[in-house]
Amino acid sequence: MGRMNTSPSRKEKDRRSRWWRASPFPPVILAPMAGITDSPYRILCMEHGASGTVSEMVSVEGLVRNNSNTWDMLRGIEGEAHCSIQFFGSNPPVFPDALEQIIERGHTPAAIDINMGCPVPKVVRSGAGAALMKDPATAVAIVAGLDRYLRKRGLRIPLWVKIRSGWDADSINAPALSAALEEAGADGITVHARTRAAFYSGEADWDVIAGVVDTVSVPVLGNGDVFAGADAARMLQSTGCAGVMVGRGALGRPWIFGEIGATLAGESPPEEPTPGRRIALLLGHLEMEEELRGSEGAARFMRKHVHWYTRGLPDSASLREEANRRGTAGDLGELLVRYAESLGFEVISRYAGGA
Ligand SMILES: Cc1cc2nc3c(=O)[nH]c(=O)nc-3n(C[C@H](O)[C@H](O)[C@H](O)COP(=O)(O)O)c2cc1C
Predict the structure, then answer these.
(1) Does the pLDDT at position 323 exceed 60?
(2) Are 191 and 210 found together in one domain?
(3) Active site residue 118
(4) Alpha-carbon distances, residue 281 vs 18, 348, 351 (angstroms)
(5) Looking at residue 232, what is its pLDDT?
(6) Atom of ligand 1 nearest to the CA of 204
(7) pLDDT class for 12, splitting at 50, 70, 90?
(8) Are residues 151 and 287 in the same domain?
(9) What average pLDDT is seen over the chain?
(10) DSSP secondary structure letter of residue 225
């Protein structure tokens, strides 16, 4: 099929393509992760050098039906200049309606991203997420409908799509689908180089990213198995992608963005934070979650983060067990302060000295 041609609107599309923070080096972006990449965590990753972030996936149906749980997932986003909102759904006309609702409530997102990669059975059964890899007509209709809406309203919001390699190993269609999505109006494509069938297992096949880069003229972000600066450099070099997206590598390690940024800048990466610094970051994260979710909500939400931030630290298994029993942010914070002290670190925190 070859490269898709340049439509008359190409110039306008080019202006819409970038939504991350400008930098002399390729962008390194926090991947969308449901239940994880909420506003506090996204802000923390930006503070550590991420170029941009993506919200958790939000249901377009939930937004237009005014579902309060769905809207809650966007709390805090108004202040985030480089955060893209990820939509999922399967009914094309609902997407522009959802975006309109967000704009009506006073927020213009840095970008919109459409989820075509979620492998979860409930999502796939509804025809959304990775099911769209098998349904190019609907995938194209979603992008074309949003593109029409953006043009009609004169909005410069970049329109991105996040895809997988294909449905399964026998149906790798990322390059062909990307070409069709570009033609429909997509300003950029993120490729998680695994099939739906693989979920998150096995190694990502970066050749598929290179195949998409060769097929489209819009920017491509590569995704899958970037856990360190050297991985990011290798992905950029071997695929020609415009930037990288980091998911699991950032769990409990928001500082990974500084490490990757330094590597790409040819500088020696900063030292891994000490255990004390890790706990201090975790406490700062807990504070932000308490403001967002209240004391009990934050304690519950932070359990998994406690697990990730403290991986590999002395006696962390019993810390995590104990953390699961703490029902308020104050109690959890106090536990973490005492744990840092037991390792010989004094941390400054609102939770120090009992809350
Ligand atoms: C817990 C979890 C939740 C995720 N949620 C989403 C999501 O909401 N939307 C999405 O496009 N991808 C989601 N992903 C996939 C990631 O964005 C990313 O594509 C995948 O983890 C591969 O990148 P990595 O190897 O850097 O982790 C999720 C991944 C994980 C582990």
Answers:
(1) yes
(2) yes
(3) yes
(4) 30, 11, 13
(5) 98
(6) 25
(7) low
(8) no
(9) 95
(10) -
- What ligand 1 atom has the least distance to the C-alpha of 113? 11
Pocket of ligand 1 (CB under 6 A): 31-34, 36, 56-57, 86, 115, 117-118, 162, 192, 200, 223-226, 246-249
Residue 353 domain flag: no
- Residue 144 belongs to domain with CATH number: 3.20.20.70
Verify that 182 and 289 share a domain, yes or no. no
Q: Are residues 80 and 137 in the same domain?
A: yes
* Residue 269 maps to a domain: no
Q: Long-range contacts of range 224-233, CB-CB < 8 Å, 24 or more positions apart?
A: 224/191, 224/192, 224/193, 224/194, 226/260, 227/256, 228/256, 228/259, 228/260, 228/263, 229/259, 229/260, 229/261, 229/262, 229/263, 229/264, 229/269, 230/263, 232/28, 232/260, 232/263, 232/264, 233/263, 233/264
CA–CA distance, 248 with 33 (Å, rounded to integer): 9
Pocket test of ligand 1: the residue of 87, 192, 206, 241 to mutate, having most ligand atoms within 8 Å of its CB, is 192
38 CA distance to ligand 1 middle (Å): 13
Shortest-distance Cα residue to atom 14 of ligand 1: 33
**Catalytic pick among 45, 83, 118, 241:** 118
Q: Give the position, in ligand 1's atom list, of the atom nearest the Cα of 57.
A: 8
Q: Is residue 281 part of a domain?
A: yes
Protein residue closest via CA to atom 1 of ligand 1: 33
Model pTM? 0.95
In-domain check, residue 347: no
Closest residue by Cα to atom 13, ligand 1, is 33
Q: Among 33, 59, 201, 225, which is best to mutate for testing ligand 1, by the most ligand atoms less than 8 A from CB? A: 33
Instruction: Give residue 52's pLDDT.
Output: 98
- Quote the domain boundaries for residue 251: 10-264
Nearest residue by C-alpha to atom 26 in ligand 1 = 247
